[in-house]
């Protein structure tokens, strides 16, 4: 990761304020002072979120003839979560600081500590890169520099000890690692820690109208299980043969110990998941394919490669035989936005055992039935939204003392694609602008405004990421031309109204990044 990726907590505050000011995201139930870590999406936020979701759906379902979609309910039979292992093992290790009474995830305290060591290594590399310029040999530096070697040994040592503790389920050892590393609570500054305890992340509620009949059900903690329990239904109705995938977008709920960093970690969020069913023994090929495909998709959002990263899991979940995260460099650190997991035949086998229904596939080439293996790609819609905001937000110095805030979103995701402005609100310019609006609104999300100076109107469009602004002036009435202004370059061209649709259509085309 390069140096631009490490920024400060303040930058997130800037993004949060921007989201509020421009109608992307509001705190939930704000008139009652809000509800911690719960957020609502405003007029521009919902457009961006919907566009992002549809873009994922198109990339998955429309572009892959062997992927189909479903939309399963949030409530599922309680046995689902017994079979999947969530009732027994969907836990996070929590630890409290006795002085501040603040609660933390023990694993996150250790991971953050290791991340700081990694940061030191990166800083040493950057310094040396600057010092030696073109002659710099990074691989050699990493292998020989004493500072780097010392930090590498330290980070690897902690990782190995932590991995062993997790694998053995040894919570006392997890606590001991925190004590030995002298990790202090950021609030109280003390190291007065409680024991580490496991905490189940599922929300439960009751269904049934009278207490005696009520039974406990869960809010789904992932959308994946809705796909597994529908495996046979989809197989029998979609004419798919293995390998094939099932995609789904929907809400998931986790009672996170610490929900923070804005919409990065919330207790209610949306996942976009795809489970890809393959012949046993071929799963690693598919795992590699999906790793590469998903990285390409992230790049198509305009994320530079140096802000993206693969990170293999230290300890794979109970259902997986390989797992990797795609990480993004947020202002508050390098964090997961998508998980890619080789889930083996764990889920289907578990559901088969608990339901008594055969969840198998007859492979006519092999003349054999089996429980398929599964590769999962699972991405957070809200986290990716946040990555788009963090990546796109820029404050630019212009001529003189002027500056502008511009949200460089990919044009195909922008909440508004065209701003349409009469230069002044008289002489028939507004009527002409309205005519253009009524023509273009069939193909694009447009916004028309007459108030304020044209400069102010451009700035507002820049701040919400609108790629094009069209201005109707007196010349328009004479020769049917308008000016079209491009967001990123601020360049203005004069074009005939007849050309508008085609020019904008080319620019906001979602296909370009994926071809
Ligand atoms: P983390 O380690 O950050 O808790 P996870 O590994 O538990 O995440 P997965 O179960 O792999 O996450 O879920 C897939 C994706 O769902 C994540 O990559 C993330 O984008 C999203 N996600 C998971 N938990 C949350 C949450 N509490 N809030 C927002 N998005 C989430």
Strand content: 15-25%
Query: Helix/strand/pairing class, anyone?
Result: alpha+beta
| Rg over C-alpha atoms, rounded to the nearest angstrom | 26 Å
Specify the helix fraction band.
Answer: 25-40%
* Mean pLDDT across residues: 93
Strand order of the largest sheet: 3-9-10-16-13-12-11
Poorly predicted regions:
1-9
Could you say which overall geometry the principal axes of the C-alpha atoms support?
A: globular
How many strands appear in the DSSP assignment? 23
User: Could you tell me how far the N terminus lies from the C terminus, measured between alpha carbons in angstroms?
Assistant: 26 Å
Bound molecules: adenosine-5'-triphosphate
Main beta-sheet annotation: 7 strands, mixed
Number of helices: 17
Provide keyphrases for this structure.
single chain; 515 residues; alpha+beta; 7-stranded mixed sheet; 5-stranded mixed sheet; 17 helices; 24% strand; globular; disordered N terminus; binds adenosine-5'-triphosphate
Topology diagram in text:
Blueprint (H helix, E strand, L loop, with lengths): L8 H13 L3 E3 L11 E3 L1 H20 L4 E3 L9 H5 L2 H4 L1 E6 L6 E3 H27 L5 H7 L1 H23 L2 H10 L16 E4 L3 E4 L7 E4 L5 H5 L2 H8 L5 E10 L14 E11 L4 H18 L7 E5 L9 E9 L2 E12 L1 H10 L5 E3 L4 E3 L2 E8 H12 E5 L5 E5 L10 E5 L6 H12 L5 E3 L5 H11 L3 E5 L1 H6 L1 E6 L5 E5 L3 H8 L8
Parallel strand pairs: 3-9, 19-20, 19-21
Antiparallel strand pairs: 1-2, 4-5, 4-6, 7-8, 9-10, 10-16, 11-12, 12-13, 13-16, 14-15, 17-18, 21-22, 22-23
This protein binds adenosine-5'-triphosphate.
